[in-house]
Amino acid sequence: MKSKSKIFFWTLFDFANTAFSVIVVTVIYSKYFSNYVAGGKKWLWGLSVSISMVIAALLSPPLGAVADVSRNRKRFLLIFTLVSVVCTALMFYVHKGDIFFGALLFILANIGFEAGLVFYDAFLPNLTEKKNFGRVSGYGFAMGYVGALAVLLIVMLILPQQSSPDYYFYIRLSFVIAAVFFLFFSIPLFLFVSEPKITTPFTGSAFKTGMKKSAETLKALFVHRQYPSISRFLLAFFLYNDAIITIIAFASIFASNILKMNDDQVIFFFVIVQSTAVIGSFIFGIVSDHVGPKKTITITLFIWLGVIAGAFFVQTVFQFYLVGLTAGTAIGSSQSCSRSLMALLTPKEREAEFFGFYDGLFGKSSAVIGPLFYGIISDISNERFAALAIGLFFLAGLIILQKVEAPNIKDNREPAVAKS
Questions:
Q1: Which residues contact 47 (CB under 8 A, 6 or more apart)?
Q2: 253-297 pLDDT tens trace
Q3: What distance in Å separates the CA atoms of residue 202 and residue 258, rounded to the nearest whole number?
Q4: What is the distance between the alpha carbons of residues 211 and 90, in angstroms, rounded to a whole number?
Q5: N or C end: fewer C-beta atoms under 10 angstroms in the chain?
Q6: Which helix (H) or strand (E) element contains residue 342?
Q7: Could you tell me the domains of the chain?
Q8: What are the C-alpha distances in Å from 149 to residues 15, 142, 214, 313, 358?
């Protein structure tokens, strides 16, 4: 590894930003907005998630290309991080009936969070050798779940009983806690992780060049098919990541509405999920470095299909805890190994640009379909059938993934380009 300390400071950003994803997207704000602010209209939450992902998807590829030619990844990451932090803190002022205000703040905060990941993930190829991509990516996700555990425990300690007159005050206070947590622990990356050195001199407008490079990359991927394995992987990732994001966005709503779980039970459920996610990220990160990320992702997708079946048939809180334990082992590892596989497939000098398509056009836009699809099905039937339908996304992604030709993890050559 090039620098253990830089890798640690890089993983601290995962530790920091998971406070937003777990408190706002997954556990607290999703249920607060859906059931309290919006009066039980779950489709409004699904629509808010979808809108934020559409905008983040459209922004990410050109911004990634801009970051490659200007080498200002930290600056862009800082801007989007501050957008997410400020809007998350302002959620304290969202009250019952403030649907537009609450949705707007979430959309802006989620755009900041998701777009920032493009620049964060693009640091990975410069932190370590190819043979360590899976392990280092796993370290990042594991640190993220440790951060999620920490912030969940803090919120659990401050939340009173739901019958308390101050209950919703402390719910709103949890958003401020998430914002402060995110900001504080992200600082080491900006101070101690350096920008990659510029190897190709650049003059001119970074934005125009970035937009041009982004358009050229889109043509190379899907018109001229110069990188067939990347094209197939992005399509597979689009499908199974859609399912993962949808499960994250609706898990607490499922728990509350189907199993009538109270706040303490829901938080404890996610403590279980985060705990096993830490273990899963470490274990599957090591497995990935031995058998390759493609085979490891395949294993995790089979686990996800089992989770979907479990969610459909679950009848008790204890059974739901078991489903969560299983989901935890898959959630970090599938996303971590996806990041390392993309890093293996990506050609040098275009990391941020290609990660812009990975995180942005395919990562974010994938979340447009699933949450809205789930929200509509759950409103016209129930969450069980909505969860079962999401399993189709995992299955389709699994089938397409098998057609990806993954490079040897010990091979340091450039990714193969299709001959014209």
A1: 103, 372, 375
A2: 888 888 888 888 888 888 888 778 778 877 887 888 788 889 999
A3: 56
A4: 32
A5: C
A6: helix 317-345
A7: 4-194+210-401 (1.20.1250.20)
A8: 10, 11, 37, 27, 27
